[in-house]
Amino acid sequence: MLFNSPTFLLFLVVVFGLYYAFPRGRMMILALANAAFYAYAGVGYFLLFGAIVASVYFISKGLQGPRGKLALGLGLAVVLGNLLFFKYSMFLLENIESMLGMTFSLQGTAFDDRMIALPIGISFYSFQLIAYLVDVHRGQLKPSRSLFEFWVFISLFAHSAAGPILRGNDFIPQLRNIRSILFRAPRVKLGMAFILLGLFKKVVIVEQIAPYVNDYFAKAQTLSGVESWIASYLFAFQIYFDFSAYSEMAVGIGFLLGLRLDLNFKTPYLSANPAEFWRRWHITLSQWIRDYIFIPLGGSRVANWRIYANLIAAMTISGIWHGAAWTFVIWGFYHGLLSAGHRMYAKGIARLGWKQIHNNGLYKVFSIFVFFHLTVVGWVFFRANSWSDALYLLRKMTMLDGIQFSKQHLLLLAVIAGLYLLHIMESIVVSRFQRWSLAWQLYVPSIIRGAVYAVIAVILLILLMKGESSGFIYFQF
């Protein structure tokens, strides 16, 4: 059930109405809504998801006992086994076949087309279950009181298909206080604003640039250098606006229900270095990688060479999480190298006594420009349909074969510049949102505000009704 579809909007209206009409039954309403959301995508995968959640819940009861390590190992085996089978089994099989120089026959099996459909949100709920198991085992989180509560926590329809990743310490207490949540008009308005912002990004921006991205990458090995850069720039904005749209809609749904979900993006293309980028891009995943991979590997408490190795390992694992292909592995490894390289650079600057250079405005602008382009280069690996396509595009992006512009190229470059300007404007609006929101409420008559809301809503509904909307990119992860 796509967030950018009339079906989901109707579903959300029904859930919202029931939620405030029957406050004592809110947990049951959310439990049933979550079940309906997953069952809509496929009853078989919904039953599998329910079985995984139930298994982890009962296993978690023994995490703090004398056999806690055994219970942790069993819980991780259940979660990772499910993830590995559905997401990586075909990838592993193909690589084994390549090494052995032979092909295994799958004819007559359920996988004779060598494809396994990915259950909705499998990566996100797997990370959430792993965090829960580890936190309970460490004594940082008490086990959930009931399977019912645990199901609502893990499966909340607002976030589970593509994040943000929720933590038990933050979210379970909110569920335990759910009956006392009151209807607050300002909070509901804020929720609707986030939902409309997400719909605007998805329907007005992403849906318009996605055809160009798909067309360019489908014919990757025929592109010129200019076209290769255009394709990469457009995908950089497609994936940002697409993923942030979903995340902001999830936050908005949380506000409608009186629940707090974390923002996942903070204008990441204004980052001057890798550390800043990962504090702004897919924030809850970055925090998860830090807490459950980087720090257990030793984090920053070990020798410098180990820190660099830990950074590269953590980011490579992030790449593997994103997809079962070598291009994703290289994308993660590339960002690991950028992170390690920036740490080396920062240490060098500090030794030379040049730390004050970071306060220079021109240096900041130059750093943002350079790192944005390094990020765009990385997106080539993420989006390319094959390793050979990625290498071809990168070779063309060196511009060694000359630079030639057509009218369409200039038009698309103008669109890209406009998208970056929109990104900057988004940052300004976020930083001044409270002040501007107050001024909007105080100085703009309610009839004008209502008319503006109505026009925006009608335009978005018309666009939604035009036809089948495309899925969110991160649904495939």
Automatic annotation (TrEMBL):
<comment type="similarity">
    <text>Belongs to the membrane-bound acyltransferase family.</text>
</comment>
<dbReference type="Pfam" id="PF03062">
    <property type="entry name" value="MBOAT"/>
</dbReference>
<feature type="transmembrane region" description="Helical">
    <location>
        <begin position="442"/>
        <end position="464"/>
    </location>
</feature>
<dbReference type="GO" id="GO:0016746">
    <property type="term" value="F:acyltransferase activity"/>
</dbReference>
<keyword id="KW-0472">Membrane</keyword>
<feature type="transmembrane region" description="Helical">
    <location>
        <begin position="410"/>
        <end position="430"/>
    </location>
</feature>
<feature type="transmembrane region" description="Helical">
    <location>
        <begin position="146"/>
        <end position="167"/>
    </location>
</feature>
<keyword id="KW-0808">Transferase</keyword>
<protein>
    <submittedName>
        <fullName>MBOAT family protein</fullName>
    </submittedName>
</protein>
<feature type="transmembrane region" description="Helical">
    <location>
        <begin position="71"/>
        <end position="93"/>
    </location>
</feature>
<keyword id="KW-0812">Transmembrane</keyword>
<dbReference type="GO" id="GO:0005886">
    <property type="term" value="C:plasma membrane"/>
</dbReference>
<keyword id="KW-1003">Cell membrane</keyword>
<feature type="transmembrane region" description="Helical">
    <location>
        <begin position="35"/>
        <end position="59"/>
    </location>
</feature>
<dbReference type="GO" id="GO:0042121">
    <property type="term" value="P:alginic acid biosynthetic process"/>
</dbReference>
<keyword id="KW-1133">Transmembrane helix</keyword>
<feature type="transmembrane region" description="Helical">
    <location>
        <begin position="361"/>
        <end position="382"/>
    </location>
</feature>
<dbReference type="InterPro" id="IPR028362">
    <property type="entry name" value="AlgI"/>
</dbReference>
<feature type="transmembrane region" description="Helical">
    <location>
        <begin position="114"/>
        <end position="134"/>
    </location>
</feature>
<feature type="transmembrane region" description="Helical">
    <location>
        <begin position="6"/>
        <end position="23"/>
    </location>
</feature>
<dbReference type="InterPro" id="IPR004299">
    <property type="entry name" value="MBOAT_fam"/>
</dbReference>
<keyword id="KW-0012">Acyltransferase</keyword>
<dbReference type="InterPro" id="IPR051085">
    <property type="entry name" value="MB_O-acyltransferase"/>
</dbReference>
<feature type="transmembrane region" description="Helical">
    <location>
        <begin position="307"/>
        <end position="334"/>
    </location>
</feature>
<dbReference type="InterPro" id="IPR024194">
    <property type="entry name" value="Ac/AlaTfrase_AlgI/DltB"/>
</dbReference>
